[in-house]
Amino acid sequence: MTNIHNLVDNLHLEDLQNETHPSIFDENEGYEMLILRLPVILDELEVVSTGFIITPDNSYLYKRDEKKFHSLENRFEAPYKILDSMVDELLKAFDGYRDLLADMEESLYLNKAADSFMNRWLKLKRNIVRIERILIHASLTMDRAIAYYEKSYNFPLNHYIDLHEHLERTMRSATLQLSKLDYIYKFYTTQMNEKINRSIFVLTIISAIFLPLNLVVGFFGINTSGLPFTDGTSGTNSVIILMICLFIITVFAINFIKKRV
Q1: Tell me, what's the pLDDT at 2?
Q2: Which helix (H) or strand (E) holds 33?
Q3: Going by DSSP bridges, is the β-strand pair 31-41/68-71 parallel, antiparallel, or unpaired?
Q4: Full-model pTM
Q5: Which of 12, 69, 99, 120 could form a disulfide with 60 if both were Cys (CB 3.0 to 4.6 A apart)?
Q6: 144 pLDDT band (50/70/90 cuts)?
Q7: CA distance linking residue 8 with residue 28, whole number of Å
Q8: Residue 157's pLDDT is what?
């Protein structure tokens, strides 16, 4: 292990120690460094970088907690198995995002969107955008590594192509889910706008009905002489009848205008 530490440049050691270092494939004299940064979907989205040093006769996994290299006893197959396991876990975990998105979409169709809809939408959007961005870099890095090693002796080309395809599949799925999220957001805002329009319409109808009544109340509430119905004993009843008549006329007028429109 000491020879490996002496072989690897100090700057590369710092890169390997970084838990969230971006994906990179770096060619050097005597070794190549492969760091693959992948999302880890648990209760919260996390990002973990896994670093390998590949020499002409072996490969090594860098253990950050121990700050040393672990010999994999296999130049290509062992790194593939480690990365393939991580990518498979990512594929399975990403299904949870698809299910969550489907539930949100179904709740909108049934007009049963929860009050926390926008918080859930924003969290999902942020996580999937981040996953897509990370996988773009990981896919490009894996593509460069495959192009570099494809003519090497004992390089399991099909295995790494399959690993690259899984990364691409997850990335395409993330892109598709982002498109669905945008559609869901438009659908949600359309529903909200319709609810607001209905509320405004109801308020407008109420205002139209009570505006004439308010005018009557305001007119008869002024403190001046010569007001109608002030001389007789049934003035209040007359005003009430007048207001009822105005109410009925207003309702009929509104219905007539709605039918014409």
Answers
A1: 45
A2: strand 31-41
A3: unpaired
A4: 0.75
A5: 69
A6: very high
A7: 9
A8: 93
